[in-house]
Specification:
This protein has 189 residues and is mainly alpha-helical. The protein contains nine helices and no strands.
């Protein structure tokens, strides 16, 4: 049944998704796009929408995918009630492992924060998380986001570079950049 498969997929994402939403993107993509519950285009749209809505990307994507996956799996599950059930299950399952892990380990980590072992663990996790975030960036550099035609790829790269420069060096507010990017996309595409 689709709900058990969704629970298993998001349980794995919740258990092994260290480093936040971007670090989890490759795992989410493998677990959700791989079985064919959503397309790669829908996945990139989910990432974009998750960035514009409040909340972590992992939770936002779990809620959305839980809603659409049952209907994509079978037309018998096309009712909004099946989607709401899927949303609730996926959201709960992706949050539960982290909640339990943080509740269990926070006291121990606080007590042993000066320990060589704890410092070593975090020193090992930091570069891995940066690598996972970099892999998420590479994962999102696909035809669904940048297009297939040369002109569209060049415009997309230009918009990406301009957004980076305006946020990182010029220090423009990200909301302004999002609004300008939407307007530029409307004009260009």
């Amino acid at each position: 049944m689709i709900y058990l498969r969704l629970i298993w997929a998001y349980l794995k994402i919740g258990l092994f998704g260290f480093g936040g939403g971007y670090a989890m993107l490759a795992l989410i993509e493998r677990e959700i796009v791989g079985p064919g519950w959503i397309t790669e285009q829908m996945f990139t749209d989910i990432v974009a929408i998750s960035q514009m809505t409040p909340g972590p990307i992992g939770i936002n994507s779990a809620t959305y995918i839980g809603y659409v996956a049952p209907a994509e799996y079978s037309p018998a599950f096309a009712s909004p009630l099946f989607g709401i059930l899927g949303s609730l299950l996926c959201t709960l399952v992706v949050v539960l492992p982290s909640f339990i892990l943080v509740a269990y380990t926070s006291h121990l980590i606080h007590r042993h924060k000066d320990s060589v072992v704890v410092k070593g663990i975090f020193a090992g996790l930091r570069p891995v998380v940066v690598g996972l975030i970099a892999s998420a960036a590479m994962l999102l550099m696909n035809a669904a986001n940048f297009g297939e035609e040369t002109a569209q790829v060049l415009w997309s790269i230009g918009l990406c570079a301009a957004a980076f420069v305006l946020v990182y060096w010029v220090k423009w507010h990200p909301i302004l950049i999002i609004c300008l990017a939407g307007f530029a996309g409307w004009l260009i595409y």
